[in-house]
Amino acid sequence: MSIPSHSLSQLALQKFKKNFWGVFSLCFIIGIGIIAVFAYAFAPDNSQNANQMHVSIASKSPRFSVTMLVLPSQLEHGQSFFDTLFFGKINTTTEIPVSDYNISRNTIYYTEFATDGLIGLEKEVTVDLAIAPDSLIREQRFLLGTDKYGRDLLSRILVGARISFFIGFVAVFISLVIGVFMGSIAGYFGGRVDALIMWVINVTWSIPTLLLVIAITLALGKGFWQVFIAVGLTMWVEVARVVRGQIISVKENQYVTAAKALGFNNYRIITKHILPNIMAPVIVICAANFAAAILVESGLSFLGIGAQPPMASWGAMIKDHYNYIILGKPYLAIIPGLCIMFLVMAFMLIGNALRDALDVKN
C-alpha cells in the first residue's frame, strides 16, 4: 500500500485551516483590504478624501438624516472612471442642509438647517429652466453620524482604512527587503561584516521607534508616502536579527556544504538554498510588523505628523475627536479606535496561527 506524501507547505496549510481564529482573521483582513482598495465605491460620500463639509450639521448622532439641497456647478472636471473609483470624485457641487423648502416654478425658497432650536436663514435660488428643481432636493442619511466638521463619519472611516491598511504592506515590504539583505550578509559571512552590521542594528534598535520615525518624517517632510517610508525604515532591525540567527544556525548544514562543494556562488547559496528554508519565522515576524506599523502610523497621525488633512486617517480622527469623549459623544473617537484595535488584533491572531502552522515540532 502506498502512503500519500504531503509537502511541508501542504501540511502547514492543513494546520492553518483548522485554526478558526486564524482563518477568521484572514477573511477579516481580506475584507478590509477590499474596502481599502475600493473605498470610494462603498463610501456614501465619494468626494476626494470624503471631505464634503456641512458645518451646520456637525457632530450629529448616528442615523441622523437631513434634507439636502444640491446646487450644480458650471465647473466641469473630466475624470476617468478609474480615477474616480480609486481617488474619489472631484466634487464641484454645493450641498446645503435645509430644514424647509418651497418650490415655485424654477425658484427654490429654502430655510437653512440650524441646531439648538435656532431658525436658519431664509434664502432663495433660481435654477436653470432645463433643470427640474425637484431633482436638486434629496434626503441624506448619515449612518454613523457626522464629525465635528459635518463630514460623513462612515465615509471617513472607510477611506481612512486605506492608509492604515497600506501602511502595513509598504512598511513590511521595506523592512523585509532591508532586513533580509542585512541579516543574510551578517549571518552568512560573519566576522567583521557581522560585527559592523550588528553595530548598526544595535544602534538603530536603541533609538525609540516613535522618536526615530518622527526624525525621519521631519527629514523627509510631512506627507503620505513619507510616513510609509519612515515606518518601514524603523522596522527592519527585527527582521535582520531573525534572519541572521536563522542563517547562523543552518549555514553549517549538509545541504549548504554540498552547495559550496558544487561550486555555487554565495548569492545562489543564500537565495536558493538557505532563505527558502528559514522563511517560516520571518513570515511570523512580518505579520507582527503589520500590526506594529498600523499602531505607529496611528500614533503619528494622532501627533499631527502622519497623514495630513484633509486626508482621512483613523489616528487623525481620534486626534480630532478625543475631547468629545467627555462631551457626550464618545463614539466619534471610539469608532476609529475600535477599527484600529480590530485590524491590529486580526494581524496578531493570524501571526499566532502562522506560527503554530509553521512549527514543525507540532
From TrEMBL:
Transmembrane annotation, as ranges: 20-43, 163-189, 196-218, 274-296, 331-354
Keyword line: Cell membrane, Membrane, Transmembrane, Transmembrane helix, Transport
Chief place where the protein resides: membrane
Any coiled-coil regions, as ranges: none
Membrane topology qualifier: Multi-pass membrane protein
Record's protein name: ABC transporter permease
One Pfam match: OppC_N
InterPro entries: BP-dependent_transpt_permease, MetI-like, MetI-like_sf, OppC_N
Organism this protein belongs to: Bizionia saleffrena
Family: Belongs to the binding-protein-dependent transport system permease family.
Gene Ontology CC terms, in alphabetical order: plasma membrane
GO biological process terms on file: transmembrane transport
Annotated ranges, domain ABC transmembrane type-1: 161-351
Subcellular location: Cell membrane
